Amino acid sequence: MLDIRFIRENTELVEKSASQKGYKVNLQKLLTLDDNRRKLLAEIEKLRAERNQLADKQKAGQPDAQSIEQGKKLKESLGQLEAQLGPVNLEFDKLLREAPNVIPDDTPEGSEADNVEVKAWGDTKTDFTPVDHLSWAEQRGLIDFERGAKVAGNKYYFLKGSLVELELAVTQLGMELAKKHGFTPMLVPHLVNTRTLEGAGFSAKGEEKQIYKVEDEDLNLIATAEIPLTGYHTDEILAANVLPLKYAGLSPAYRVEGGAYGKHNKGLFRTHQFNKLELYVYCQPEESEGWHQKMVALEEEFCQLLEIPYRVVRIAAGDLGAPAYKKFDIEYYSPVDKSYRELMSCSNVTDYQARRLNIRYKAGDKTEFVHTLNGTLAAMSRIPIAIIENFQDKEGQVAIPKALQKYAHDQTHL
Fold first, then answer.
1. Cα atoms found within 13 Å of the Cα of residue 212, Cβ hemisphere only
2. Any residues with CB less than 8 A from the CB of 208 and at least 6 apart, and which?
3. How close are the terminal C-alpha atoms of the chain, in Å?
4. pLDDT at 55 (0 to 100)
5. How far apart are CA 308 and CA 302, in angstroms?
6. Which residues pair with 249 in a beta bridge?
7. Interval 134-167: pLDDT, tens
């Protein structure tokens, strides 16, 4: 969330950023509540100071009737003010949490269609149109959505044979690359409490519910390892000399959005469950922009190792989620669709998540909130598609990228 002092001093910027992102936030009501809250707190502190002074006097000897009566009135007045403060605080906290992160001035305006290409890599020229990944895999008995639906429902699937080996190989290569860049491998809880979920900027409620909630328990299935990795240092004060902290979290991702239909949601591209390798960084504020660039470069390095043609796009304001300050996507080229499709993303969230979960660092006498960043290195719902489409020959054989072959028992084809 944003610092209320920042909102007070930069109301127009916060209002403009929220509007560009497509969020409706009643900042005037928030600021009015903030004024009321501060007045109540000042009055409460004043009465508490008077009560403490009275208590100190009474320690010297037997309190007289006037002091006892004064103490009763102070207690009654304090109780009334604290009763008033409770609901004001609740509404204030709710509105403060609804305010999205601000965005840089150079953020492209508009929605998804207005995302801006930053660079492109790889050869996108093909002399034939390959078979789409779902048809290719079903013809070979390597994927089974029909039986997945039988045991779990629509958009669940069984993966078999060489596609399982491909996923394991991609995971191993991705983790080795992350380790090479100093990221610590992590296996994370697949369930988190609501504080962690909402602290990371996700919600189990709302019109666009995307999180599976466990009924009658304060537990939610994670949509990405970003969520538990955000909560890992909740309520901690980190030493400045341990930053940056870099984690590579491996986990399934569970998403309600898998129920979406349409041309671009066929097969693996959008499902209720898939495995994912997520990069996460905690750093000092002045370092977050640099780490954002490094993480995008690491994602590019992985795409180049896999020889997947791609482009990097800067995400427009209307396509940014509430926590993101700045975001890039990496999109692979689809020779089936003759267009680019999302493969990875990388976001600088600044101190938005850290404030919600009280994650700070100490340098000398200074204690500040850390900045956090997250990036998808390998979503197993997308990378196999990119490989099947880009490494398929006219006979339907799919070559395994050279970088993966040592993790795939030296096999050269799926």
1. 16
2. none
3. 46
4. 79
5. 9
6. 186, 278
7. 999 999 999 999 999 999 999 999 999 999 999 9
| Tokens 């030493």 found at | 239
Active site residues: 255, 270, 342, 345, 382
Q: Pick from 267, 244, 243: which is nearest to 341 by CA?
A: 267
Residue type, 140: R
Q: Is the pTM of this model over 0.85?
A: yes
Which amino acid is located at 401 in the chain?
A: P
Give the residue among 347, 312, 346 at the shortest CA–CA distance from 332: 312
The DSSP output letter for 221 is: E
- Structural domains in the chain, CATH included, are 4-98 (1.10.287.40), 112-405 (3.30.930.10)
- Distance between CA atoms of residues 251 and 254, nearest Å: 10
| pLDDT per 10-residue tile (average), the chain, 414 residues | 95 96 94 96 90 76 74 88 94 94 96 96 94 96 96 95 96 98 98 97 68 95 98 98 98 80 74 96 98 98 98 97 97 96 97 98 94 97 96 96 95 94
Token reading at 242? 């341990």
Contacts by 104-111, CB closer than 8 A, 24 or more apart: 104/325, 104/326, 107/20, 107/314, 107/316, 107/317, 107/320, 107/326, 108/314, 108/315, 108/316, 108/317, 109/20, 109/316, 109/317, 109/318, 110/316, 110/317, 110/318, 111/316, 111/318, 111/319
